Each structure stands twice: as structure tokens, then as C-alpha cells.
Amino acid sequence: MSGNNINAKIRSNPKFAELVGKRTRFAIILSLIVLLPYYSYMLVVSLQPQLLASKISDGSVITIGWPLAALIVIGGWLLTGVYVSRANGEFDRLNEEILKEARK
Amino acid sequence: MKRSITALVAGTLLAISFTALAGPGAIEGVEKQPVNVSAIAMFLVFVIATLGITKWAAGKTKSTADFYTAGGGITGFQNGLAIAGDYMSAATLLGITSMVYFKGYDGFIYAVCFFIGWPIILFLMAERLRNLGKFTFADIASYRLDQNRIRTFAAIGSLTVVCFYLIVQMVGAGQLIQLLFGLEYNVAVAVVGILMMVYVTFGGMTATTWVQIIKACLLLGGGISLMLLTLSQFGWSLDNLFAKAIESHKMGEKMMAPGSLMADPVSAFSLSLGLLFGTAGLPHIMMRFFTVPNAKEARKSVFYATGFIGLFFLVTIILGAGAITIVGTNPAFFEGGQVGGKILGGGNMPVMHLAKAVGGDVFLGFLSAVAFATILAVVSGLALAGASAISHDLYARVIKKGTATGAQEMKVTRFASVGLGLTAIALGIAFKDQNVLFLVALAFGVASSVNFPVLILSMYWKGLTTRGALWGGIAGLVSSVGLVVLSPTVWVKILGNKAAIFPYDHPAIVSMSLAFFITWLMSVTDKSARAAAEAEAYEEQFIRAQTGLGAAGAHAH
Lengths: 104, 557
What we know:
The structure holds two protein chains of two kinds.
Chain A: H1 3-12, H2 14-47, H3 65-103
Helix pairs in contact in A: 1-3, 2-3
Chain B: E1 2-5, H1 8-13, E2 28-31, H2 37-60, H3 64-69, H4 76-87, H5 90-103, H6 105-115, H7 117-132, H8 137-141, H9 147-181, H10 185-233, H11 238-248, H12 265-279, H13 283-286, H14 295-326, H15 350-399, H16 406-430, H17 437-460, H18 466-485, H19 488-494, H20 508-524, H21 529-547
Antiparallel strand pairs in B: 1-2
């Protein structure tokens, strides 16, 4: 069986369209969840820095900027975990099925 | 011996510094330190261990696949540590702590900018890189485009970034080692260059990966221990640490909020673009995706790498904030005992002084050895990426058109590694006492404006043609290099002109946009038969990128 044949089979398998659609959407949504807060943060930093200067609580000297920046870092990492768990589970299972069906 | 080093900061901030923050102590003299025996002893242990690993790796390195990708047999976790190791240079430790020490919160903003590219690399690139590539990122860029021209251009892009980065690392290594170990600058540069050649030439990717893993563990372990020792001094209370820092810092309460660093939104945007997409265009980082057996492990490796890098940044922030009080109020760490004056050893030293203050001489020696090991590991990764561009892309594919035998290619790789090592030593010595900060801007500028556009478009855009990729790449290269030359750092500070022609130190906002625009324009207007064939070939590439069908597998021994 030629490579072209396998490619054609994959292409015509509705599961392939499902895989590509789901994974692409998921990747874009997660990218936006990372980038929108990040660029909002950068805008606040350069245009309204005083917004980050208020204290996290009355008794504390720490400003909200510190936990916020830490949150961007930790949140970004947790989202990589979210992506990997779905991509290595659900998406890879779908992928296996597609490849198996194409090789029949 | 008094050495007047222009911008010690420049050399040692390395990868993390951009001209906007040459700031703290950019120009100051440095005393060569007395020979530090415990630091050298600990470093020797590291060298002996890594040479042992190189010997073991050399026995395993039989084919080109072994050499370039460690046979594809590295696990996701190991590769994650190695990627983190590639990204966390000595500069990250010294530079970010120093920025927090001098500028407070601004240092944190900077760390966030350096971090944010990682999740994006995972979401948009990791699995496609793994599925399409074999040894180098040029494999992907030239997948369905003209092998000769695009591969040559991608290899040139890689080598450019590698060379800029190598110079910065070598100069930083010389200065740092002179300072911490009391070795001569030239000796330090030669030691780094020779060890790098040995690791890469004999041990290839296997040795380089393990050196990187060991170093990443040492750096993380050292950083976390130092953080715990520091926190213990403040009764384990961050609130207490910051309260003391505000008392000790000359900016007072202002250090707790964003300052002048990112005050110009255009400049901040350009910087963040360059860092975000430059990271995704660094050849030595991309090469790491080919060392794991499949896309699953590639994704896992970014997850681990992102975690380690994020953790490390958060640790360095706390170290910098702790140093404000512990180092900043101790006369022993200032020239002439003048608190608030010049810091001993230069503006990058707060974390080293912190190590001495909370952990004594032995801990300082340990951290110095870790810093040396870190530089060594980073230059080895760079040299390997450069050597593969020469042997795999230029020699085996372009010159020999794929007819070279594995043995011939290996031979060229080894010569290339030795050549790069010698070049690195020569450049390190040639750029001694120079302000090399602009080279960091150049490396990231070229990575984001030359490597990244062709890479992402070749994976995502069916309409990309050879003509578009070539013209876009040239536009990106010329504009990024040109704009850095016209930037305040080079045009004003180095060349001595009055006013900068291009007002920003980071070119990405212009050069990257231009590269994308020209690539698009020259692709859509390309009506040649070749262009049509290239668009048609996208189908097969797309299926392989998505499913991993036909992807280069792990190479069993």
C-alpha cells in the first residue's frame, strides 16, 4: 500500500477532521488564556503601573503585582499540564485509531 | 591586577539582559579575586564526572542519529530537565537576582517575559516539530521547499544565532570565572572552549544532554537551598522579607511596583515579542525536540521544562529580594565598606554575596562551581546545534545532496565541533572587554525574525513558497541586524553617535512584522510551477505533522 493511499484514507476519515479541529481549537484557546492576561498585564505595567502598587491586605507590605506575576508563571505552567494531559490521552487515542484504520 | 571591564554586567547578564536595563553598575572595574580553592575543587569534581559521562556516551555514539539526537531515546522528563538547563544560564541566576536587587519589581516583569514563550511553544509547536523534524530545524523549514536554498538559509540563520550567543557566553564565562575562581580571563575562556569541544566531539547529544541534566539539577538544587537559607533569616515570612527590603532599598516603597523599565509600551511590546518568539527560534532549544522518541514525550518534556524554568524564576526573584537586605546593608560587600556604593565584583554579584552571607565560603564555592558548570553546559548545547547545521544541513544535504555516508557526516560533524570550539575561544578573546550586551538583542532578534517566521509558516501555512521564505528571511535578517546597529545601545553607546536612529533596543516589533509581511507577499505573488507543487506537498506534510505518520522514530541500538 502506497503512502498516498494511506494519506488519502486518513484524509477521508472523519475522525481526522475531528482530531485536527479539536486539537487546533484547544491549542488556540489555551494560547489565548496565556497571552491575553499576559499582554493585559504588560499594558497595565507600562500604562497604569499604580494599579499594581496597592497592597494585598492591610497588614502586608506586599503589593498585588507580586502574586499576580507569580500567578502568570504558575498559571502558564498549569495550562501546559492541561494541554499535555488531554493531548497525550484523548487526542493520542483518536490519533491511534486513525492510523490503525488507515493501515487496514 | 586591575582589569577595567566595560560592562561586566553586559557579559554576565548574557541571555537575560537586554539593553534597556544595562542599568545597574554597567561600567565598573573588577578586581581579579584570589584563587578560590574550594570552588575550583568542586568544579573539578563536576568536570571529572562529566568527562566520565562523555566517555560512556562516546561508546554509545555510533551513528549520526546517535550524535545529533542521542538516538531519540531520551525520556520526556530527562529532556524537560535538559531544555530547562539550556534555557537557565548563569546569566539567568545572576541577571534576574541583580535586577530585583537594583530595581525591585521590574526584575519580576522581566522574568515573566522570559517565561511566557514556553506554554506557547507547547501549544503551537512541540508536536509538529517532533513529527516533522529529524535532526535540525532546517529539516522542517525545508520539508517541502527547495532543499538547497531554504536549508542553506536556515543553516545560516542557526549559525548566526549560535555565534552571537556563543560570544556572549564566552565573554561572560571569562569574566565570571576570573571573578569567582581567580583564573585569568584567557585561561577561563580556553578551559570552557576545550571542555565544550571534548563533550560535543566525543559524546555528541548524549553527553551534552546529560551534562545539561546534571547542571540543571545542581542549579535548581543550589538555588532552592539558597532560597531556604535566605528565608530562614527572615523567620520564613515573605512579608517580613519584603518589609525589610523596603527599609533597605534606596527606592523604598517604590521597589514594590513597576518602575521605569517597561514604561514605554512600544518598547515593552517589542521586547516581549522578541522574547516570546525568539525563544521559539533558538536552534539549540529546537534541536532538543528530536531527542525524544515521539510527540507524546515531546509534549511531556515541555511540561517539565516549563515547570522547572518557572520554579527557577520564582526562586531567583526571592533571592534578589532577600539580597536587598542581607547584601545591601552589609559593608563587607561594598567597595571600601561603603554601604550603597559599588558592589564588590560588580552589579551582577548580589546573589553570590548572598550565598556567602547565608552559607559561608563553602556555599559560595559551590554556587561558583555551579555557575561555571552552567556556562559550560549552555555553550555545549550551542556548539552541538552549530555543528549539526554545518554537517547535517550544509555538508550532507546541500553539498553532498544526501549521498554522504554516515561515517563521512560524523567526521564532518566532529571537525565542525572542533572548529566551533576554536572559533568560540578566538571570539571570546577578541571580544574581551567589549560590551556584548547588544549581541543578546541580536541573537533574539535574528531568532524571532529569521528562524521563527519560516518555521511557523512552513508548519501552518500551505501557501508558503521557497521564494516567499527566502525573501522574508532576508528581510528579517537585514532588518533585525540593521535595527540593532541603529538602536540606542549600539549607535549611541558603542559607536558614540548623538542620537539613536531607531529608538528601541529590540527590533522584533518591526523586523518580525516585516519578515512575515515580505514572506506573505512574495509567496502569494509566486505563480511558478514550483510554488504550486509546494502547496500540493503541504497535504502530506500536514498529515504527518498531525498524526506522526512517517515521523523519524527512536533509533534502537
